[in-house]
Design goal:
Elements (H helix, E strand, L loop, with lengths): L23 E2 L7 H17 L4 H8 L3 H8 L3 E2 L2 H11 L8 H5 L6 H12 E8 L10 H8 L8 H13 L11 E7 H5 L5 H14 L5 E6 L13 E6 L4 E5 L11 H17 L3 H14 L1
Parallel strand pairs: 3-4, 4-5
Antiparallel strand pairs: 1-2, 3-6, 6-7
Helix pairs in contact: 2-3, 7-8, 10-12
Length: 295
Amino acid sequence: MDSVTTETTADAAGTTDGCDEDGWDVAPDDEIASVAEMAGGQLKAWRVGAGLRAGEFGALIGYGEDLVHKVERGARIPRPEYLDKADKALGAGGKIAALKKELAEARYPKRVRELAKMEAQAVELCAYGNHNLHGLLQTKEYARALIGTRRPAYAPDEAERMVEGRIARHAIFGRSPAPELSFVLEEVTLRRPIGGRMVLRRQLEHLLEVGQLRNVELQVMPTAREDHAGMGGGVQVLKFQDGSAVGRQDHAFAGRPVSEPRQLRIIELRYGIIRAQALSPRESLAFIEDVLGET
């Protein structure tokens, strides 16, 4: 799963030429709009309290007046660098910089936040991907390169939001108690040099690191397998503490997530067969090591 059309660090620092592209737009009907408005209101209160007009404040921290207005009315989520500069310029003593924590999740696309929320609640996750490595397994460089292959291309700002959101989901590996995670990877996803040879090498090294975790099982589906139950597309199943579950397969049930027991049983059956046809976890790690040596 996690194709370039499904999900998405801004390494660039804040602008110094009055550019208004720093930050992320907020849709009026998005539930995080209230969070953005709250933060914007606090920023405006600090600015007004300092006796500064929006243009003066923007010039002081290196951003355009229009961006300042957008942030203050909650129409745009500022990058962390914006908040750091505002905190210093207004002498807020860390109170403005503290907003970074509240805005951290709000800056990700809505569909990424929804997926991350489900993953954070899951006690078991099973996933098979036939074209790409799962987002939870991707390095930042690999994710950025993969998202960059999408056509028509995402706007740079949207692509970076997707990268940020995808990497933020990796917090699942630090959860306690740890969820059980099972991934089946197609051999081709280990060999296709997305982003170039060095990006692929680092990705393979990362897979070997993740595969050592006690709650993670990685399995490789060799291209030479004659019998393959995953020809219907990617599969993902999330199971929760209360016994409920949700599953999805690319070309089953119109590609929509399902939670009805009969439909779930079909998806789980297919995933079970896919796992049985793939290499064992131990064989798979050895296979990935061999591919790394060839890369």
